[in-house]
Amino acid sequence: MKIGELAERTGLTTSRIRFYERVGLLKSVERQSNGYRSYPDDAVLALKLIATGQNAGFSLDELRTLLPRDLANWEHGTLLDTLRRKVQDIEAMQAQLAQSKAQLIDLMAQIDAKPKDMDCAANARRVLSEMRLIEAEKPLTSTKARRRR
Hints:
Strand order of the largest sheet: 1-2
Structural class: mainly alpha
CATH class of the largest domain: Mainly Alpha
Order of helices and strands: HHEEHHHH
Strand content: under 5%
Number of helices: 6
Distance between the termini: 64 Å
Oligomer: single chain
């Protein structure tokens, strides 16, 4: 099939398809005598897998190593291991995002707790001072935790 039909069947632009070919993700492309690209039917599946993988957070390098040259030769165990690692990465990212969110909510509460008779600049100094105190205590907490082990 030609690139226009492939683009139509996958919902990707022709430039995106050419890009995936250029970076080595789409490997089963042949050139006709007139120079036109000719794609096999499994290119639709490969492109859908690439797009799905990118949406799931896989980098192009990860996808390049994950996708076999021939989809019929996919290694089941390797695929599952890679997907499990990506789920772990996502879970770690979720934990980090939850921590960042909690810190921002705490900061908003501190800013919002501005005494009525305090101007914004003084409140900012108060909040920053409290933040410095909290940060100064963190290494001590870590040291105490190490000593208990």
